[in-house]
Specification:
Largest sheet: 10 strands, mixed
Order of helices and strands: HHEEHEEEHHHEHEEHEEHHEEH
Radius of gyration: 20 Å
Helix content: 40-55%
Shape: globular
Oligomer: single chain
């Protein structure tokens, strides 16, 4: 089957995925593309099978967030939000590379509107999560104050970096609130899972910028052949809560591994900290549970509960294991894409 035949054979939901998902690329220090996905090729407007080996053509560096204009495959000029995060992946060990996310501005705006609609029905979620979001709100406020007061003395690049940090914090807050709302709807029985085929690596690359500078602290060991059949934001809720938990309570090295075996994908986030005290293990995935030591924690204990309820809604599960000799392993089994559909994602 040639490339044109394969494209015509794509099911409707996969055509939707191609046009709806973010384009993701890995770009090295010389500006050469080292990895791409189908959505990136569509956005950049090429019928080539891959962009790998070609120059990306735009400057790459940490804290880069900008709007660019590109011509897509149909010759339409559109505005695209570009985000960049340093990438630590096993396939590029020792090489300086960045994960680049390209997302149509109209798509980003539609997602923001959808979050706003859901937040309008949030009821008591703000009061429940206030403690966890308080630091983020304070950080955004402080960042805006510094930006306003120092604006005349800042170079354009410094302004851009400060705005990018504020944007990441605000995006993280919105995603956390959306995850909380979805998890609450799962518990109340009104949530409907949205199975959608994805390459897990593409999904991880898309959302790495949400972690900011800390993205480079996580070694990603995920093959391009690993898949999940889940809504992207729901899957990232699970992964990001595992990762953020490791960054906050664990110790380096921190590794994200995944493998697809039959109808399931196993995801494991490992750290080398002190591990979870035995007294806390039984309540890890409960609402208001904690992963830290016996003294009171600064966390509201919602993250792992969100991960657990999201996985359960898709027929999966999450669990905890001690890592040898020290540390924690947070694991999830999630639905994978069938082999036939996986081939169409390449």
């Amino acid at each position: 089957m040639n490339a044109g035949e394969k494209r015509r054979a794509l099911p409707t939901n996969l055509i939707h995925v191609e046009r709806r998902l973010s384009g993701v690329l890995i770009v090295d220090a010389d500006g050469i593309v080292r990895y791409d996905n189908l959505a990136a090729r569509h956005l950049i407007g090429t019928d080539e099978r891959t962009l790998v080996g070609r120059p990306f053509g735009l400057p790459i560096g940490e804290d880069v967030a900008q709007v660019i204009e590109i011509v897509d495959r149909e010759g339409v000029v559109q505005s695209v939000d570009m985000r960049v995060a340093r990438y630590a992946g096993s396939d590029f060990a020792g090489a300086e590379v960045w994960a680049v996310t390209l997302r149509p501005s109209a798509t980003a705006a539609a997602d923001t509107s959808a979050v706003d609609d859901q937040l309008a029905r949030l009821d008591d979620a703000m009061s429940v999560t206030y403690h966890e979001l308080g630091n983020a709100v304070a950080g955004i406020s402080a960042g805006l104050t510094v930006l306003r007061e120092a604006w005349p003395d800042l170079e354009d690049e410094d302004r851009l970096q400060r705005v990018a940090r504020i944007e990441r914090a605000a995006t993280g807050m919105a995603l956390h609130l959306k995850s909380y709302l979805d998890a609450s709807r799962i518990e109340s029985g009104v949530f409907e899972p949205r199975p959608t085929p994805h390459k897990l690596l593409d999904l991880v690359l898309e959302h790495l910028p949400d972690l900011g500078a800390r993205a480079a602290e996580v070694e990603v060991q995920v093959s391009a052949h690993v898949t999940v059949d889940m809504d992207a934001t729901h899957c990232w809720s699970i992964l990001s809560n595992f990762i953020r938990n490791a960054l906050k309570h664990g110790a380096h090295p921190i590794t994200l591994r995944a493998a697809t075996v039959g109808p399931e994908t196993l995801v494991v986030v490992t750290d080398h900290g002190q591990g979870v005290p035995a007294a806390h293990v039984g309540r890890l995935f409960e609402r208001f549970g904690t992963t830290g030591p016996a003294e009171p924690m600064s966390s509201s204990g919602l993250g792992l509960w969100i991960a657990s309820t999201m996985a359960s809604a898709y027929g999966g599960r999450v669990w905890y294991e001690r890592n040898a000799p020290t540390g924690s392993r947070f694991c999830a089994r999630l639905p994978a894409v069938s082999p036939e559909v996986r081939d169409l994602l390449d």
